[in-house]
Amino acid sequence: TYWLLVDGSVVSEGTWTNGLEFLMDDLTVGDHNVTAVFLDEVGLRSVVTALVTVRDVTPPALSHPEDITYVEGTVGHSISWTATEEYPAFYEVFRNGIVIASGSWSGSVITVNVDGLAPGTHNFTVRVTDQYGNEATDTVFVTVTTSGMATTATGTTSTTGDVEIPLGGQSMLIVAVAAGVILVVVILAVLKRRG
């Protein structure tokens, strides 16, 4: 007869003939005491104990929000990261390589307000770490533009898509001159025929 105990609780028992196999896939992360007790036909008992350590080597699953572009002075812009982790521990947020927020992390959504940035491109990186040192990181780029970046010149209309260039005064003058030349040629041709 045998008894198999995990952390003091019997998980299996039965008739023992030769050897014993124990599948450890169901053990949770951490240290476990696995003990096998054997009893033979004459009542002699043998006890074998092993310490089994199950380690978590899987990093947190971290989302990847889209990059952001906004006009300087506008508000309501933020980045939200979500992560899935059974043993969350710590988080850090970097802006252009400098830590701007950090602390203990319980697996909740990490949100960073990105309003009020200077014009240009900034990178925001989050790093989450679980209780066993596994890490996951993600970077979002935030581009801030100025309202004066889109300009309109006299006689020219620019759009973010197709560029439309209406006929301006100089072009009209060229057309008028060309028409005048054609008119002179026609008059000369008529006079030549009459002569």
CATH topology of the largest domain: Immunoglobulin-like
Strand portion: 35-45%
Biggest sheet architecture: 5 strands, mixed
Report strand order across the widest sheet. 6-13-12-9-10
Which radius of gyration do the C-alpha atoms yield? 39 Å
By DSSP, the count of extended strands is 13
Tally of DSSP helical segments: 1
* Unreliable sequence segments: 150-194
What is the name of the CATH superfamily of the largest domain? Immunoglobulins
Mean pLDDT, all residues = 80
Could you give the topology of this structure?
Layout: E1 2-6, E2 9-14, E3 30-39, E4 45-54, E5 61-62, E6 68-71, E7 78-81, E8 83-84, E9 88-95, E10 98-104, E11 110-113, E12 120-130, E13 135-145, H1 169-194
Parallel strand pairs: 6-13
Antiparallel strand pairs: 1-2, 1-3, 3-4, 5-8, 7-11, 9-10, 9-12, 12-13
Polypeptide structure, described:
- This protein is mainly beta and 195 residues long.
- The protein has two domains: 53 residues; 89 residues, Immunoglobulin-like (Sandwich), CATH 2.60.40.
- The chain is built from one helix and 13 strands, in the order E-E-E-E-E-E-E-E-E-E-E-E-E-H.
- The strands form four sheets. The chain has a five-stranded mixed beta sheet with strand order 6-13-12-9-10, with no helix packed on it. Strands 2-1-3-4 form a four-stranded antiparallel beta sheet, with no helix packed on it.
- The longest helix is centred in the C-terminal third of the chain and has 26 residues.
